[in-house]
Amino acid sequence: MSIIGNHAFSSCDNLESVTSIGSGAFYNCSLLTSLTIQAITPPTLGDSVFAGTSSSLVIYVPSELVETYKSANEWSDYASRIQAITKWSLAI
Questions:
Q1: Considering the entire predicted model, what is its pTM?
Q2: Residue 2 is assigned to a structural domain of this protein
């Protein structure tokens, strides 16, 4: 299990994408366009994890877990951003 601590990516202007993390904080990562999370259980999120990110940020999760993520306590605030991982959403 990997853990990325609070504010680990705070104010990183050039971060564009992350393919897989256990949990994390992306405060003010305004260029982050996609995040792929393959965890079966939605990671616990701290406060303001995605504050300052683009409204177009897409959070990809396994297709069978989309509703699980959308209804999870901390994740429900980001339900509109959560989409199923497809072969097109995986980084090469």
A1: 0.72
A2: no
